[in-house]
Amino acid sequence: MKVVLAGYNVDREALDELRLAAPPRLDLTPETLSAAYARISRDARPVDQLRLAARGEVEKARRSNRAIIFKMGHHSVAEHAVFNFDLMGLSRLAIEAVERFRLASFTEKSQRYITLGEDFVVPEEIVAAGLKPDFVGAVKAQNGLYHRLYRKLRPFVFARHPEAAADPKKESLLEGWAKEDARYVVSLATEGQLGMTVNARNLELMIRRFAAHPLAEVRTLGARLHEAAGASAPSIVLFTEATVFDAETYGALAKQARAEEGPGRRRHGKSGDKETRNPAGDAKAGAPVRLAAATPDGDDRILATLLHTVSGRPLGVCLTEARRMPVRRRRAMFLTVFERMKFYDFPPREFEHADLTFELVLSASAFAQLKRHRMATLTVQDYDPALGVITPPSIVEAGMGGDFADVVGRTEQAYARIAAVLGGGAAAAYVLTNAHRRRALLKLNLRELYHVSRLREDAAAQWDIRVIAAAMTAAARRAFPLAAMMMGGKDAFPALYTDTFHN
């Protein structure tokens, strides 16, 4: 056996310093790795020799990449080239577009732990429409209230938690609680930043999708990403133009849906629809968490796949056996799976054979956390003021609920003016706050829901997403009473384990 570390991430500025201190060289590019690895299937030389050859013939390696990716269609070789990007000065709305991509890694500036300043993006669409004064006035009112809320909530939170306040180590935690509730009033135009790591294949997809995005800010981001990556790796980021599929599919679907409604049918859930509109502060727009679908007989199917893995029998036989088992024996089988589990363990892969689909109505603050669980299918509607807002209870208890409602009202007036001038459009959402809500569909398997539950139901999790995660867990337990029995936050796991195995 021979294991060779073929490469690793290096800060680009360090590479630039090396270039200045050494003769010119072309091989400081991830293209040589992708070209070398592409040859493995048809070249008998050891891999390290293939890499050496690629580094010695960079232009030949680039031609090879283009031929393999473009002509032969083997796009996976581009996954061996990896890029790191600093993304700064993006709006919260644009960051949502970035983090929609599942096969990339992100670390984002947190609005829970960092005190926000006054920086926000003014969208090109709003400037072009002559709506900048309305937009800026609303956002400045939001930011002004954010700072007033934080000044009010900080002593309020400390007073409510005297034991924690007496411990200097808990000061940042309590300050974070005040910040996370104050941020509900700031807009989706608020500037943020993140670090992103992505392979060339997924970067190419990102750039192509961004080229068809309705927001000018996101289209500009795609162009900047292409410019930065193309300069160092021109042979592996090739298909970057917007496709007709990406550019027109959702618009065509929306047009068809409007035609299906017909002139005599009501369109529910839009701003100003008094039948569906909820007042600011009302957290109910229908059930905020609803289990829309679940694998039938999920416990039986998971048990059957466990038997399939360990027994050597066909799945059909295992499924029949699982269905015939007495409840007591079936429970014992699941307890065997869970018996050696620690809070950081998740059930085995067989739990991925049971799926759940949830219909959610959640705030932008909660969505910002949910979207990080990318091993799932998450589709969303636009943010809609008709769904009302989530008002943090601490703001009401601190006597700031009226101020919060006033700014939300001003925000929604600005939204209505912008949407009217722009004919709707995605750009109007920039002015909405973290408290505003959207509808989402989340489809995930039971194993991934365990991960969501451990992280988002934990006592350290933010309260808004914790409520949503707890509701999803409760629904999963009803659907799969055996397979979901060990769900819960990290903090609750010891007691849950004791109740399950020692009581």
Description of the structure:
- The protein has 503 residues and is an alpha+beta fold.
- It contains 21 helices and seven strands.
- It has helices at residues 12-21, 31-38, 47-56, 58-71, 92-98, 124-128, 132-160, 162-165, 171-182, 200-211, 216-232, 244-261, 298-311, 315-324, 327-338, 364-370, 393-397, 401-422, 446-456, 463-479, 493-501, and strands at residues 82-91, 104-108, 191-199, 289-294, 355-363, 377-380, 437-445.
- The strands form two sheets. Strands 4-5-7-6 form a four-stranded antiparallel beta sheet.
- Helix 2 crosses helix 4 (58-71), helix 7 runs antiparallel to helix 18 (401-422) and helix 19 runs antiparallel to helix 20.
- The chain is globular, with a radius of gyration of 26 Å.
Q: Count every beta strand, where a strand is a DSSP E run of 2 or more residues.
A: 7
Tell me roughly what share of residues is in helical segments: 40-55%
Going across the biggest sheet, name each strand in turn: 4-5-7-6
Low-confidence blocks of residues: 265-284
Query: Termini distance?
Result: 50 Å
Task: Summarize the helix and strand pattern as letters.
Answer: HHHHEHEHHHHEHHHEHHHEHEHHEHHH
| Strand composition percent | 5-15%
Largest sheet: 4 strands, antiparallel
Based on secondary structure, the structural category is alpha+beta
Count, helices: 21
- Mean pLDDT equals 88
Q: Evaluate the radius of gyration.
A: 26 Å
What is the global morphology? globular
